[in-house]
Amino acid sequence: MASLKNIKQKQQRFRQKKKTLSETNRESLTKELEKAYGEIQELGKRIEDTRNKASQDIAAKQSELLQPIQAKVAAAISSVSKDKSLAYVFNIANGQSGSDLVFWEGGEDITPIVKN
């Protein structure tokens, strides 16, 4: 019976150590989790900053690449308009969606000529 009493005492000590160890681990894990959470927040901020920078870079490059094309289109429209003695030219590329209301009665569509 002494051995049973000894085992029960060891179990009791083990349970107390386990409880103490759990509290210590809990404290340690809480610190680790707080640190990991901070790192995740920092990483999220860096990702967001990188996305914003990429968006700005894309917009700048798009503007840089489109500018010469837009200049050519504007020159072609101006040239065709002068050749045809047109007073007004409307951009109907967007059709009648949203607030782009385009109305004309008759008239000539110079799109094919401008494309050449």
Record the SSE blueprint.
Elements: H1 2-83, H2 111-115
Describe this structure in words.
The chain is an all-alpha fold and 116 residues long. It contains two helices and no strands. The chain has helices at 2-83, 111-115.
Low-confidence region ranges: 98-105
Count of alpha and pi helical runs: 2
Order of helices and strands: HH
How does the overall form come out from the CA principal axes?
rod-shaped
The percentage helix is over 70%
Major sheet characteristics: none
Return the average pLDDT rounded to an integer.
77
**Helix- and strand-based class?**
mainly alpha
Strand percentage, roughly?
Answer: under 5%
Please report the distance between the alpha carbons of the first and last residues: 107 Å
Report Rg: 37 Å
What is the number of E strands? 0
Which features would summarize this protein structure in a list?
116 residues; mainly alpha
Gist of the model:
The chain is 75% helix and 0% strand. With 116 residues, the chain is mainly α.
